[in-house]
Write a structure and sequence with these properties.
This protein has one domain. It contains three helices and no strands. Helix 1 packs antiparallel against helix 2 and helix 1 runs parallel beside helix 3. The protein starts with a helix and ends with a helix. The mean pLDDT is 91.
Length: 85
Amino acid sequence: MIARCLAGTLLGFPLAAALLALALQWLPDHGAALLIPALILFFPLWIGLMAGAYLFRSGPRAWLVLGAANAAAFLALWAGRLGWH
């Protein structure tokens, strides 16, 4: 139980940030105007990811899936920064 809690807390934070950054990155014309709403949405998204960690069967599975989601999100951010989107 504590492993899922830690996975959601520690891996949910950067995942929520990366997902919102991806959303802002894909809207280049309106990205600056949506910065404040994105910051407001950060906390509920992080809470949702923390709660979603309890849906996994085990702690290691939660760490694996959330870690892979983090890697994919940050890879997409990196690819977008290089102009590969």
